[in-house]
Amino acid sequence: MSLLDQAWEQRENDVYVNLFGDIGEGIYTLQFELFQNQFGCEEVDPRWLHSGVFKSPPNGNRQTWIYVSSGMSNPWESETREEYSGLGTEILLETECDESWAIPLVQSLIAYNILLSVGKFGDKPLLDYGARIPQPIAPNITHLIIGKPTEYPESIDLVSGEFDFLQVCGITEGEYGYAKDHGSFELCELLLEKGIYPITDPRREGMVSG
Fold first, then answer.
1. Mean pLDDT by 10 residues, the chain (210 residues)
2. DSSP 21
3. Rounded Cα distance, 199 and 78, in Å
4. Are 182 and 209 contacting, i.e. CB atoms less than 8 angstroms apart?
5. How far apart (Å, rounded) are the C-alpha atoms in residues 11 and 179?
6. Structure confidence at residue 210 (pLDDT)
7. Helix or strand holding residue 23 (H, E)
8. Torsion from C-alpha of 58, 162, 50, 34, nearest 10 degrees
9. Helix 102-117 to helix 32-39 angle, to the nearest 10 degrees?
């Protein structure tokens, strides 16, 4: 079995099942139309379309829904173990309900990060902790913030190298202003103290203003 296949199987069949339990009937993979329609990208590497999102329902350990990416940590270019596997990250989104917008949102973030990695947007860095991304989710969310997971390991060690979980959380316009003034990590800590982070609830009211 190749290093790619070993890492792929370890992540989805071992790590994810142990962390999240039931990860659904299958993966919601990226489609060519996502790159074309949302990002104006006509040249799509077929390997990108293997990345996608698993949806994990509530279980005895949690009452929330988990949407987790899979594929960005695939070691497509490596035949030996490296410090980080693939792009070195996977995305986590957590909600209180099964939200129709959640899978497309994570798919868009995966596609965006992949395109960042190939220089589609110039020298912009890959998604990482502290990033703030414009992303309206009606009625009250205006941006996403990326922080560290609170209930899951920050880093996972695969046979091909490590990857970090990027916890995505929706924030309001006022909270976005607060993060600009005080920092993303400070906002995450404040929202955690108030029992909001890391769950994204588009119906909640803002906790702070900029």
1. 97 98 97 98 97 98 98 96 98 98 99 98 96 97 98 98 99 97 97 98 89
2. S
3. 35
4. no
5. 33
6. 65
7. none
8. 80
9. 80
Helix (H, G, I), strand (E, B) or coil at 86: strand
3-class secondary structure, 207: coil
In contact, 111 and 29? CB cutoff 8 Å? no
Residue 48 DSSP code = G
Helices 173-182 & 184-193, crossing angle to 10 degrees?
A: 130
| CA 1/CA 207 separation, integer angstroms | 50
What is the C-alpha end-to-end distance of the chain, expressed in Å?
A: 52
Residue pair 64/199 in contact by the 8 Å Cβ criterion:
yes
Q: In this predicted model, what pLDDT tens digit does every residue of 63-98 receive, in sequence order?
A: 999 999 999 999 999 999 999 999 999 999 999 999
Q: Is the pTM of this model over 0.85?
A: yes
The structure tokens listed for 198 are 């890391």
